[in-house]
Amino acid sequence: MIEVTANLARGSTFLAGEILECYITLINTDREEKRNLAYNDCTLAWASAQIHCQCAVSDSRVVLPKSDILSTEDVTSTGDQTSFVPSKGERGLTVWSSKPKILFCDLRLGPGEQKTYLYKEGIPKDVPPSFKGQSVKYSYKLTIGTQKLECPARLLRVPFRVLVLYGLNDLNVYASGEEVTPSNPFLEQRPPENTLLEVALQVLSTVTAKRSPHCFNITNARGKVARLCMFKQAFKIGEDIVGTFDFSDASIPCVQFSATLQSEEQISEECRKKPGQLPITMSYCKHQDFCLHSRKTHFSLPIPLSASPGFISDIVTLKWKIHFEFITSQNAIPPHAAPSNPAECSTWRGPENLEVETMVWDLPIKVFPTNPLHASNVSLLKTSSMVEM
Fold it and tell me: What is the pTM assigned to this prediction?
């Protein structure tokens, strides 16, 4: 019996543009004492590996445009049991696939013998990211196919996650032009060679850095409700969105507020099932607080590492926002009268009935990818898979 194991060399999350590496090990699990028996030698006819991206859509909301991409059912029906069809049995369409690479042909393994191969493949920068939405789903898998003599082909799949950071097509743009460190005239000066991951982390640090705070005056038809200050409006997944509220100069008393982190999944016009179809909103976390008689307060919203950053594809667009709700009083609320003697204490009792109104406001934000090594630490995807033949 042959045991085939595939193990990703560096976690289960990659940036588009990186090179995926996978170690594929084949072991003959028969006992060592039968090594001299010829029938215990297992021969594998071939083995190939390929990366493919599957797109599955909701038929009630999405109409895919006509294209030359074959569906999985069409591809499966044209192949027999001995051909290598990586998307066999998968749901949806194959929107991208790498060229299949042959790992070996005619491999013979004796009892207890093993062989390891290294598979390398680059992920293009313009592919859609991994995404699991209500209407559209993009998923990536590495498929290894192998076949024993006079047996049907077997497939081994290893799912992984792809994050896309736009603007990495030309790495020379991010290369430093002048040397700022002291140079030695007796040593040969070599330009620094930054990998794509190092450049991507530099770009992420630049676009998500804290700059001047952004302040917003929140008002309604009757006056000012609050003043919101945020340190930035661009974040990486895994970060905390922090903002502060100032009610000291408000003319309208705010009784309660809530802040909800939401994403909007909007289908492109040519792919919508119905005209005027509204986007799907998904909420992730919520901060709610009572703020009556408060001068200043804050909110904090963590962005899950499992969430998908904002992106645009031919079918769907994902955007992020913070949904605010303010409950304000329509009547003036008398403040708490403090006693003249500091040693005395007093109790303030609020009104039994309070006429309120609700005001909503959406603040768009930008959400970018993070370090794929950090995302791999919390990923539920397995980095290895095994099949027996």
Answer: 0.84
